[in-house]
Design goal:
30% of the residues lie in helices and 28% in strands. β5 and β6 form a beta hairpin. The longest helix has 20 residues. It starts with 5 loop residues before the first helix and ends with a helix.
């Protein structure tokens, strides 16, 4: 079961501390959100799962964390200055502005008027001044994607790691797009976080690798709680492809507001490395660039046996953390009817993604012995480095259980008066609501095994 509407998710996120509107006390900023105490944990867990699958579990991928501020030259030769835009229209009746390709029946969503201006390109990149003098001549862009900083570091990574094809460079980080109409909660925002892999392959093997990464990404999302049966593949038509793409397959998911892209897997050919390479005439480059880059780099790799220089093709699986967060949250959201006729809200998150791994609850909050025993157990479990362990000292065991069901805590461990007698505690399972009595010494291995 998933949420019936986006409002259900936004209400849960605000109420339980997952996501807040940025600068809400001043009316907020459209298209910008802050991740609260539980949201930052879930978000970090999702990123950690991606990083583990891309970097730690593979022997052919390196990591990178590059700067956000980007030289205009980089985004000039990448084609972003010229092509990274959306069609913008104005409503002459109410003066609102909209993306032309998002309008239904070419009418204004605010007032219904069809008296709209002709679409014109609106560049999505944010500029910021660099240095002490703001005269418009010294500026940088806030990067619209992490990919370009990966490409400009290609030679650095290659020289320092001695990699051979195929290999990849993974990067997570903030990106910024001045969306005309941010909408649908955290789905389309102006400040986002991306998870992008640039996987470099021999030309001619690119289509095979493209299919490999499509399959890989479907399997990964399934492990995060978004099963393949809930996903569809969309082969982007040639007329809709990005300027750098030979072919792109989008993984589509039914969000509360409709079916949209969750992740894109693009075959970028040698466009980017070729665009940033100075002397292209001596390399086998098919990049669609009008003139050579002004960089001083040769972004190519030399075959160790033939000694020939090759500009690799690039397969790019690229996903937004925020969209992933929304999909995972939506899939986990469940309202269950209980035998007594009441309902409970449950976030059936995969344990490795749960913001809180276990809650330790003393039965009575004012009993010093129970609270001390609970604190000691919490400290022991936290020392396992499995994630956040919470001491829930509310004094109401029923409300504590319901709260942790709603935020996705997989296990609640209750310290009661029997604990003081025989050193046992009650472990309650979020999904089944079954309770099991175990000895304190067994609590740590129990949690480790469950989260494994």
């Amino acid at each position: 079961m998933t949420a019936k509407s986006m409002e259900e998710l936004t209400s849960l996120c605000k109420r339980r501390g997952f996501i807040y509107q940025t600068n809400e006390i001043y009316g907020g900023l459209q298209g910008l959100f802050d991740y609260g105490p539980l949201g930052v944990e879930l978000k970090n867990n999702l990123k950690q799962a991606w990083w583990k699958s891309m970097v730690y579990d593979r022997d052919d991928v390196e990591g990178l964390d590059a700067a956000i501020l980007t030289s205009p030259a980089v985004l000039k030769y990448s084609g972003h200055e010229e092509t990274f835009s959306d069609p913008l229209v104005d409503c002459r009746s109410c003066n609102s502005r909209w993306r032309a390709d998002h309008l239904e029946e070419s009418k204004c969503p605010s007032c219904g008027s069809k008296d709209l201006t002709e679409p014109r390109p609106f560049n999505l990149m944010f500029k910021t001044n660099v240095g002490p003098i703001d005269d418009g001549t010294s500026f940088a862009y806030l990067r619209p994607e992490t990919a370009q900083q990966t490409f400009t570091n290609f030679k650095n990574v290659l020289d320092s790691t001695s990699r051979s094809l195929p290999f990849g460079i993974a990067q997570m980080g903030k990106a910024f797009r001045n969306e005309v109409t941010p909408r649908n909660f955290i789905f389309r925002v102006r400040e986002m976080e991306l998870m992008e892999l640039e996987f470099f392959v021999e030309p001619g093997t690119d289509e095979e690798w493209h299919q490999f990464w499509i399959k890989n990404r479907l399997e990964w999302w399934s492990k995060q709680g978004v099963p393949e049966k809930r996903l569809d593949l969309y082969d982007v038509p040639a007329k809709e492809l990005a300027h750098y793409s030979k072919s792109t397959t989008d993984i589509m998911y039914k969000f509360p507001h409709g079916i949209e892209e969750l992740e894109g897997i693009a075959n970028r050919t040698d466009f980017d490395l070729g665009s940033h390479t100075k002397n292209q005439s001596d390399l086998s480059i098919t990049a669609k660039v009008l003139k050579n880059s002004s960089s001083n780099a040769k972004l190519a790799i030399q075959d160790r046996e033939t000694k020939r220089w090759v500009v690799p093709y690039v397969i790019e699986p690229a996903a937004g953390v925020d969209r992933g967060f929304l999909a995972v949250l939506n899939e986990a959201y469940t309202i269950q009817k209980l035998e007594n006729g009441k309902e409970r809200t449950v976030l059936s998150l995969k344990p490795h993604l749960s913001p809180i791994k276990a809650a330790v609850i003393p039965l009575k909050k004012n009993n010093e012995e129970l609270v001390l025993a609970a604190k000691n157990l919490k400290k022991e479990l936290q020392g396992l480095s499995l994630g956040r362990i919470l001491l829930e000292n509310s004094g109401n065991i029923g409300k504590s259980y319901r709260r942790h069901d709603e935020v996705g805590t997989p296990l609640c461990i209750t310290v009661d008066f029997q604990t003081l007698e025989d050193q046992t505690v009650t472990i309650r399972n979020r999904d089944s609501m079954d309770q099991e009595r175990v000895h304190l010494e067994e609590a740590s291995p129990y949690l480790q095994e469950y989260l494994r």
